[in-house]
Specification:
Structural class: mainly beta
Strand order of the largest sheet: 1-2-3-4-5-6-7-8-10-11-12-13
Helix content: 10-25%
Number of domains: 1
Shape: globular
Strand content: over 45%
CATH topology: Porin
Distance between the termini: 70 Å
Mean pLDDT: 86
Number of helices: 5
Low-confidence stretches: 1-8
CATH class: Mainly Beta
Largest sheet: 12 strands, antiparallel, barrel
Radius of gyration: 28 Å
CATH superfamily: monomeric porin ompg
Length: 254
Amino acid sequence: MAQDAAETDPDDFWNMDTPKTPIPPVTDADRAAAFPELAHDHAHALEWHSKVLLEKLEFWDTGSGTGMAWEGKAWIGSDINRLWLRSTGERVAGETEAADVELLYGRAVSPWWDAVAGLRHDENPGRPQDFLAFGLIGLAPYKFEVEATAYLGRDGQYGLRLGAEYETLLSGRWILQPVIEADFYGKSDPQRGFGQGLNTVEAGLRLRYEISRKFAPYIGWSHARHFGESAEWRRLEDEPERETQLVLGLRAWF
């Protein structure tokens, strides 16, 4: 003990540059334990998952009858590569006024964004038409969910659909969701009711109650406005340029 005391300099105790005990070198196992997501990125990329989301299935009353609208999406794949299926549509008084379906391949281009490309098929309005589709799906700053898709169709027709939504958590089960969507087309198509430029803007506000995370009825308000040639054609057919509805609906996923 005397020998150990003689060999130890008391001033070394207060020297912060001198370690009191040897520090072992950092190993790969240490790095993996500290950063499990980085260590398993490759493994995660090989794992396959799937999800089906019925974003909205809603009903309302109009002067011409009961209306119904749907919007849904599904995907299957890994964190990097996914196959997407999307569909939207609307029926009024038993007639389908609009319906489309998209089949897209998506690839992650950042932690929050997927680039997508594929096909869109419109069954209504007017004659059926197909488009090539290219776009982005992701989460913008401040947690806005954004979808932006460009379309290229026959006879030089092209279009753009932009959509954004935001979820405000009012409590553990009540969620308020504002939504806005806009459609643009490059060429007039009177048969299908598409005018050149901005066609429609639709805004909505929905309040849902999550009975479970996967099942939530809601009540909401929706307002759509038509612009340009699209509005003129609606006036000629005695249809309103603006439409406002109170809706009841359901959101579910599995």
